Amino acid sequence: MPAQKILLYPHPILKTFCNPVPAIDDEIRRLVEDLIDTMRAGPGSVGVAAPQIGATVRVCVVDVSASRLGKENNHGLLVMVNPEIVRREGDTIGREGCMSVPDYTGDVERATAVTVRFLDGDGAEREVAATGFEAIAIQHEMDHLDGILFLDRIVSLKTGLFRRKSYK
């Protein structure tokens, strides 16, 4: 499938709480393919969530393996349907960006480690313990499923929001 158009803030779908997926069917499998293709086509993208391409269901993908920040510590491509964080640990503040907010980055506080339970693209239940950059990417994408953007989590609007110099 071709990469899909990313919705840009302030599109109202980006602020929507997404519905659980009742069953993994052909429509959801196509959505997963679209998410993967869109993530891989995005400049520097390590994840994308369904609402970013207009679908209001609880599906997202994360793959930090090609990123210099995540290539040493990752689970490869994670297809997450109905994900939920079951454990959080530690905290850190780091710079985040988002394809739906291409002109800005910001300092956001996140857990340094998370355990997430989800269904994979085949409907199998999985539980993954992620740390570092992968944990941050998972939290970022899962926030999209709750209608939360990194802009909502900026540690300080006065000192923690930055205009992006280039989007690569």
Descriptive overview:
- The protein is of the alpha+beta class.
- It has one domain: Peptide deformylase (Peptide Deformylase, Alpha-Beta Complex).
- It has 2 helices and 8 strands.
- The protein has a 5-stranded antiparallel β-sheet with strand order 1-2-3-6-7. Strands 4-5-8 form a 3-stranded antiparallel β-sheet, with no helix packed on it.
- Strand 6 (about 115-120) and strand 7 (about 125-130) form a beta hairpin.
- The radius of gyration is 15 Å and the shape is globular.
- The two termini are about 25 Å apart.
- The relative contact order is 0.20.
- The model has no long low-confidence stretch (mean pLDDT about 95).
- This is Peptide deformylase.
- Its EC number is 3.5.1.88.
Overview in brief:
The chain is built from two helices and eight strands. By secondary structure, it is of the alpha+beta class. It has a five-stranded antiparallel sheet with strand order 1-2-3-6-7. The chain has a three-stranded antiparallel sheet with strand order 4-5-8, with no helix packed on it.
Annotation keywords:
hydrolase; alpha+beta; iron; 3-stranded antiparallel β-sheet; 5-stranded antiparallel β-sheet; Peptide Deformylase
Ordered list of secondary-structure elements with their pairings:
Layout: H1 26-41, E1 47-49, E2 59-62, E3 78-89, E4 92-98, E5 101-110, E6 113-119, E7 125-131, H2 132-145, E8 161-163
Antiparallel strand pairs: 1-2, 2-3, 3-6, 4-5, 5-8, 6-7
- Percent in helix: 10-25%
* First-last Cα distance: 23 Å
Question: So, the CATH homologous superfamily?
Answer: Peptide deformylase
Structural class by sheet pairing and helices: alpha+beta
Mean pLDDT: 96
Taking the sheet with the most strands, its summary is:
5 strands, antiparallel
What are the segments in which pLDDT stays under 50 over at least 5 consecutive residues? none
Query: What's the helix count?
Result: 2
